[in-house]
Design goal:
Elements lengths: L8 H12 L18 E2 L5 E6 L18 E7 L4 E6 L7 E7 L6 E6 L9 E6 L4 E8 L7 E8 L5 E5 L10 E10 L3 E13 L2 E13 L4 E9 L5 E13 L5 E12 L6
Parallel strand pairs: 1-3
Antiparallel strand pairs: 2-9, 3-8, 4-7, 4-9, 5-6, 5-8, 10-11, 11-14, 12-13, 12-15, 13-14, 15-16
């Protein structure tokens, strides 16, 4: 009985050659498949597009979320600068990592698998003038390559700064609101959470608040409902924790604020 399984690729390749007298063209490995053949980046911004279907893995390739087929790039920082490498626009599951050193003696600088909710990658780091960085783009785990898009450019780290309005008010029964402002270095999202604390003798009253929304360089006002375990009045201590992220880069930032505010009755408006 004939097998239902197709012949191995090498056998099919030989059969085609014998039957037609024509040797089919084989896809070649990328020029920068090996570490020794890394593509040197002369200036930023840099971009490259290539087919990594036939890329291979060297025994000395370091691991970044697995060790699939890889290609290599090299760049020497001309000055101290924050940079990021991205594979956005590629059509397969990638990893992006940055290394210093040499095969067998690599030191990891950055490693990323999935970025901003996609299967593509983005790794950022603070480059030091004169240091050479080896950028390895791989397929996730032991997956296969595909159509790769690589970019390397300077970037501004995402930062945020949050404050609590000391004129924020709370109702004396323990319900009310806390207000403040948050400024982000770029368009993104934020969340704030914290507590109000008041100690009277041996007793401590605590209130909790949280809120979230969108933020940007122009600043955003936030209002958080307060849930306290008792009445708060007079001088109250507060602690607030802020967290946020960039829509463009996926970078995160955080901040905190501590101080005191004067709690007073609230009309609800």
């Amino acid at each position: 009985m004939l097998s239902a399984h197709p012949a191995p690729f090498s056998a099919r390749f030989a059969l085609v050659a014998l039957a037609t007298g024509v040797v089919p063209a084989m896809a070649a490995a990328p020029d920068n498949d090996a570490f020794a053949d890394a593509t040197w980046i002369d200036a930023l911004p840099f971009s490259d597009s290539l087919d990594t279907t036939e890329a291979t893995t060297e025994a000395t390739d370091p691991s970044c979320v697995g060790n699939g087929p890889t290609v290599w790039y090299a760049w020497t920082a001309p000055w101290d600068v924050d940079v990021a490498v991205s594979t956005a626009g590629s059509d397969y599951d990638t990893t992006a990592s940055v290394w210093t050193g040499s095969p067998g003696a690599f030191s990891e600088v950055a490693c990323n698998d999935d970025s901003d909710g996609t299967l593509q990658s983005r790794a950022s780091w603070s480059a030091v003038e004169g240091e050479t960085y080896w950028v390895m783009i791989g397929a996730y785990a032991n997956g296969v390559g595909g159509s790769l898009v690589v970019t390397l450019d300077e970037y501004v780290p995402f930062e945020l700064s949050g404050t609590v309005d000391t004129a924020s008010t709370v109702i004396r029964t323990g319900d009310g609101k806390v207000e403040g402002t948050i400024v982000c270095s770029g368009d993104g999202w934020f969340s704030v959470s914290g507590q109000l604390t008041q100690r009277t003798g041996r007793f401590e009253t605590v209130g909790w608040f949280s809120a979230g929304g969108l933020c940007g360089p122009e600043g955003t006002s936030w209002v958080a409902p307060l849930d306290a375990d008792g009445a708060l009045a007079g001088l109250v201590s507060y602690t607030a924790y802020f967290m946020g992220g960039s829509f463009a880069s996926g970078d995160w930032g955080s901040d905190d604020a501590m101080g005191s505010l004067r709690a007073r009755g609230w009309s609800g408006r």
